[in-house]
Amino acid sequence: RSVLCGLDVEGTACPNPFSYVPRLLTMNSDRMTFFQRVKNMLYPLGLKYICQVSLTPYERMASELLQRDVSLVEILASGSVWLFRGDFVMDYPRPIMPNMVFIGGINCANRKPLSQV
């Protein structure tokens, strides 16, 4: 549904309001109480710290390969089209940018006719 650590949101520069877009793994829907909205806002803060610690070696490796200081968000933001393996009909309403394309169902097999038995 999304890229690890919210890098898709930062990379696309797409607004992702805490007020009505539920965060992954919070078990919230788009209709939240006040306390669920607070949880929806606080949950990513802890996750952001964990992601920063775990992704730092990859940022260093990318900076070494590109021979300049670079962040993962900067690398991801340079993409001109974002392909999301999902369907906007099956997800909660959220803002999307024009360069975000939903390609859900590409892994589904072709249908087969049912047997007569």
TrEMBL record:
Alphabetical list of SUPFAM superfamilies matching this protein: UDP-Glycosyltransferase/glycogen phosphorylase (SSF53756)
Compartments where located: Membrane
Coiled coil: none
This protein's record includes keyword Metal-binding: no
InterPro entries per UniProt: UDP-glycosyltransferase, UDP_glucos_trans
GO cellular component term, pick one: membrane
First-listed, main subcellular location of the protein, grouped into a coarse class: membrane
One family name in Pfam for this protein: UDPGT
UniProt entry keywords in alphabetical sequence: Glycosyltransferase, Membrane, Transferase, Transmembrane, Transmembrane helix
Gene Ontology MF term list: UDP-glycosyltransferase activity
Topology of the protein relative to the lipid bilayer: Single-pass membrane protein
Family under the similarity heading: Belongs to the UDP-glycosyltransferase family.
Name of this protein: UDP-glucuronosyltransferase 1-3
Organism of derivation: Bos mutus
